[in-house]
Task: structure prediction
Amino acid sequence: MREVERSTRARAIALLLVGASMETGLRADTMEQVQRAASLGEFGQAQRIAELEPDALASVRAQVWLAYRARDFTAVQALAERGLALDPTDLWLCERSLASALWQRDAEAAANAMERLSASLATVEPSVAEPFLGAVAEARTQVASLLSAERVVRAAALRSKIATVLILGAVLAALAWLGLRPARA
Result:
């Protein structure tokens, strides 16, 4: 019982601090506030904090983090693209866009995101790029696998269409042959 009271009290204090810092204009780092609210299970509050951030890029980044935590990869993709329209070289947004495309198994979006991340990595210092290189290497493997699977599916669909046309042709030929046969008396 005492643990529950302490947990409830800690949650209330944290939410009051978050709310007070927003109301007074003395805002702490938005991402920290969003993460704190989310860790307390206050996802609605976390979303409001992210949306109220006056810096558009910081707002989008916080919303991407929150959507990724919620495993809403469609939202992550859309938000990351919105953020990348503001800053096309944002490595973290590039990586989140790539990760969400891979989670959705969208080979085309993943290939595009991987190329964008690779191009952005080429413009930064090696020490900045280094943490992202593993993600790019893993993504290349996954994108190749997705593209290969898509080729297999397209080939199977083509074979299916050909088989359907052949069967339909055989049925039509059989019907024509039956129609041309002289009737028995």
User: Anything to note?
Assistant: Residues 1-54 form one domain. The radius of gyration is 27 Å.
